[in-house]
Amino acid sequence: MNLANLKLFHIFVPLLASFSAAASDYNMRQGVTDVSNEVYQLHMTIFLICCVIGVIVFSVMFWALIHHRKSKGAKPAQFHESTKVEIIWTAIPFVILVVMAIPATKTLIAMEDTSKSDLTIKVTGSQWKWHYEYMGHDVDFFSVLSTPKDQIANLQEKDEHYLLEVDKPLVIPTDRKVRFLLTSDDVIHSWWVPDFAVKKDANPGFINEAWTRVNEAGIYRGQCAELCGKDHGFMPVVVEARSPDDFDLWLADAKQAKAKAEQAEAASVGATLSKDELMATGEKVYMAYCAACHQPTGLGLPGVFPAMKGSPVVNGELKAHIDILVNGRPGTAMQAFGKQLTLTEIAGVITYKRNSWGNDTQEVVQPGQIQAFIDETKEKE
Amino acid sequence: MSTTAQEQAASHDHHGAPSGIKRWLFTTNHKDIGSLYLLFSLLMFLTGGAMAMVIRAELFQPGMQLVDPHFFNQMTTVHGLVMVFGAVMPAFTGLANWMIPMMIGAPDMALPRMNNWSFWILPFAFAILLASLFMEGGGPAFGWTFYAPLSTTYSNDNTALFVFAVHIMGVSSIMGAINVIVTIVNMRAPGMTWMKLPLFVWTWLITAFLLIAVMPVLAGAVTMVLTDKYFGTSFFDAAGGGDPVMFQHIFWFFGHPEVYIMILPAFGIISTIVPTFSRKKLFGYASMVYATSSIALLSFVVWAHHMFTTGMPLAGELFFMYATMLISVPTGVKVFNWVATMWRGSISFEIPMMFAIAFIVLFTLGGFSGLMLAITPADFQYHDTYFVVAHFHYVLVTGAVFSIMAAAYYWLPKWTGNMYSETLAQWHFWLSLVSVNVLFFPMHFVGLAGMPRRIPDYALQFADFNAIISVGGFAFGLSQLLFVAVVFKCVAGGKPAEDKVWDGAEGLEWQVASPAPYHTFSTPPKVD
Question: Whole-model pTM above 0.90?
Fold first, then answer.
């Protein structure tokens, strides 16, 4: 082995050794599924092949740069082609590629086989949250970033899982084949959990499939991977894998909780809340769901998201305001919040908007009014 | 016909350049237009670089510090557009304008008036694009790839300006490409047969065909975005029978050849510079031509490797994986040929050669990560992370941009008649080389560790590398001011350059005086 070769090896070998460490800050994760392990192996194999080719090619080049210098009195040779050499260095890379393509093809076929799943979860992206629906189990919920705004604004110390934490993580069982159906309500999002080696786009109007079978219980964190507008960076994916028994318990709890919520919702129709209560609920809801676009100041982003302060909708006819909140405005970024928020929350946030930032309608909206509006539209249909 | 052309050319011989602003506005001279393109591209390089600095400043630490996420998205979008359409492509067109006629022994480009137009519409395109940043709602914020429906239903009203600007850039590129093809096909000096063409001319000829093939596709894509947004069509809206993924197919059918448009002329430049400073003929000239052609052809059948996560059928994923892997074969041939050219040469290390060597090593690194990205299962992990950002900046900055720097240093003495300042140039090279790697190499790490691209804020485990990346970014950006100094100093004066500036150089451009007279090869040279 020549000198230049040795030098390069001294640089590469420790680098390689440190690369093979699991779950590092600078290499791909091995993850917790068989597929993610295969993907990691593919990644390391192709990486090593590239390193070896690089060492060989650059060794030859640096050898020439060192030994065939004009300042050393090197006289240029006259050769400028060799069919034999050229065929060899076309053929060898080709063979390497074929060798590489075989395991890659195998893994890919496994990754695309979504058949025979034990559980199906529909994942719907929207600006900027995920919605999970356990198909056939009547359980569904939204999962939203839970990092406090003050941490993002550097007013508070950032905690360990800054930007990678949500209010309600997706819960799945370990050792079961879980199939995901992915779609979107607005722009394209991409659902990514590095530890599962699952990244699939959520396309509006279409359904994509992916699957995973997690080997270890734990909490796994990822993010939306496709630019989806202003808060693309604030749309984490958190998945909690529990043992199948734990998962069944969780699912039963979730079903109960949902039934309770429905009861509470029905009860809220008849309730009359004070303005203060509604304003307090409304402010909380506004900051969590509305402020990303319309801004905490209610001023919006001129030319992008309309202001709430002085808005004709917010200060105009109540019914139109309820309509846009419940049904959204098709063709714009304004989502339908009817299914995302409770009646009390909708009543609260409308009350809050109509009495904040100088908007002064003095109107107090009760949950019953929202229900009445929803019933009325249903009748019309 | 030929005699009248010669007479006309002869009658032009006696006057030099007209003076004043009219010289530049109305010029049909390939050298003037080449200079305009190059200066414009330098200006855009600095503008796009300033935007990159904003991005890197925001990403220096976790948390939101300087800009809001909406403006951050505008910066990533316009940075990409400005660098691709404003810096790299016009730089290559400028080099083509200056060098192709001089390399093939032609008096000018074949279509000089169109040449004037193809340059002068560009500043308007970029004025429109950049002006939108200052309007209510801001500029485009949907990424330079402008995926629908983010760029249609969910974009702001200034999208029309983006569409119009891209249309103008496309028209400019197409006109430039037509000019290159017509010039090379019709105006080669007697005896300049196809297989004697300098490689820079060859690579540009192939690039020009790519441009003509795909710029209309881009025009179609932006037009559909325009009508979807403003005229109620539903090309990319499922609710009306369209498909948002179809946008990506159309965009990348343009986009993938586009990335080769930005690298093939670079191959030509490196294939010119390496033999000069190795004082040895280019190894495998013919295989270089064939490799370039096969890369160009393959570039039309690999587009969906940008879209592996969109939910393609398995057969599609396999096809695009194999086709993409295949590209590494002709690309490898090129690298092997350059190394073989240096092998047993008589090598010296002038600045153009330094940039060329840096290109070979660093572009190859970018090629390796490209090969890794071709492996579909692994791409599911790499896709839309900083690993991809690292990959395309290695091929575009240390690839395309370094080749442009190499070309500038190589031909500046011919253009200006003066040698550049060696000290400044050395500083520029070494500072660029170190800082560009501090800037882009750690991006591989954060990408593999899971940091998505196009995010204005990130989780804490990415903080250390991002700080390092930002420092590298500032250093690389500031180092480019040295290049500006080198260029202006060289234009202003310096050691007079000989006609044949580099002793190992070959080609017709070295037969004319330094600085190259306003009109060259009014009488075609004889090539044997």
Answer: yes
